[in-house]
Write a structure and sequence with these properties.
With 119 residues, this protein is mainly alpha-helical. The protein is built from 6 helices and 3 strands, in the order βαααββααα. The longest helix is centred in the middle third of the chain and has 14 residues. The protein is globular.
Length: 119
């Protein structure tokens, strides 16, 4: 049976934690990509195509979930993530739009994914 992993409530979302989380370009890209998808769309971390190790992806998605930016469901053999758009918009109006603007300004999804690789 699917299980929603622990995450902060809407009221527990903290701006300093969110800003710290979004200081990483890969995590900003994840949120911007999820924001381009229809609401409640679920994606697994490998589907983003980031050129980083699976352990790194797992860590980044855990940080995003613990900050309250995404929700994750454990299906047993995989985890799926979705953007907590309503909660983010309620607590931090305009934040998602800023992240999407940055993504477009920096060349879109493909360029952002390519630029998040190991240096």
């Amino acid at each position: 049976m699917p299980e929603i992993l622990p995450q902060p409530t809407r009221d527990e979302l903290d701006l300093s934690v969110v800003f710290s989380t979004l200081s990483d370009p890969l995590r900003r890209t994840v949120i911007a990509i999820l924001a381009t998808l229809p609401d409640c769309t679920e994606r697994n971390c490998a589907s983003f195509g980031f050129p980083v190790a699976k352990a790194s992806l797992t860590h980044h998605f855990k940080i995003l979930r613990e900050a309250g930016l995404i929700s994750q469901i454990d299906y047993g053999n995989r985890r799926a993530s979705s953007l907590r758009r309503d909660d983010i918009d309620a607590r931090f109006p305009g934040l998602i739009a800023l992240l999407m603007e940055e993504l477009e300004r920096d060349g879109g999804v493909d360029k952002a994914v390519a630029s998040t690789g190991k240096r």
